[in-house]
Amino acid sequence: MTDTPHDNAHYMRRIRSFVLREGRMTPAQQRAFDTLWSRFGVDYRGAPNDFSASFGRAAPLVMEIGFGNGEALAWASEHDAARDFIGVEVHGPGVGRLMNALAQRDATNVRLYKHDAVEVLEHEIAPGTLAEVRIWFPDPWHKARHNKRRLIQPEFVALLASRMAPGGLLHLATDWQAYAEHMLAVMESAPDWRNDIGPGQFAEKPAWRIETHFERRGLKLGHGVWDLLYRKV
């Protein structure tokens, strides 16, 4: 793999911002795939998806990329019922866990992809359709030789911008200071985005981002947390 991209789409397809450590699914998580995928899952087809048909209504769309165990996405969908949520995660145990949580409260406003987020954005999300994108605590790839694998790169945020509705919100969060500074530098240089707080500023933690188990663990280890809020210009 070289560090020099040829064209943006080719570059993003080659780069993987995750390592697929699938882990072992519990019987309950496997049953979720067997019995609940048809209800909550979206099979990747490589063509724009009509989410108004999937949800049975036209509502603002919020996408969470890399939702982990789904704790924050489940909470958001319950406390923001006027909007519809699309979750994207590559790790099966977290997807299964979230489907079980959604089924317990009979959620109707969440659909899930178990697929690479770049490909979902490129091929399944029509331009100008997302009201908000949330990317919370992505892998920081903290070793210098791995920094190029970080998800937040100029090519990726340009792709995000093309899928956002005018004024749409991008909410980033990380507990690695070096990645926070990298995110800030990338976003401040991105022509399609405007810092919602002020040029060069981090945001206070918004009320809609709950403190998850993952975040609490980081705080106990002495990590700080940085939030960034940007609007599509």
TrEMBL record:
Pathways per UniProt: tRNA modification; N(7)-methylguanine-tRNA biosynthesis
Gene3D superfamilies given in the database record: Vaccinia Virus protein VP39
EC number, UniProt record: 2.1.1.33
Binding site for substrate: K143, D175, T212, H213, F214, E215
Region feature (Interaction with RNA): 145-150
Catalyzed reactions: guanosine(46) in tRNA + S-adenosyl-L-methionine = N(7)-methylguanosine(46) in tRNA + S-adenosyl-L-homocysteine
GO molecular function, one term: tRNA (guanine(46)-N7)-methyltransferase activity
Domain of life: Bacteria
Binding site for S-adenosyl-L-methionine: E64, E89, D116, D139
This protein's UniProt keywords: Methyltransferase, S-adenosyl-L-methionine, Transferase, tRNA processing
Similarity section: Belongs to the class I-like SAM-binding methyltransferase superfamily. TrmB family.
Protein task: Catalyzes the formation of N(7)-methylguanine at position 46 (m7G46) in tRNA.
Entry protein name: tRNA (guanine-N(7)-)-methyltransferase
Species whose genome carries this gene: Rhodanobacter ginsenosidimutans
Phylogenetic classification of the source organism: Bacteria, Pseudomonadati, Pseudomonadota, Gammaproteobacteria, Lysobacterales
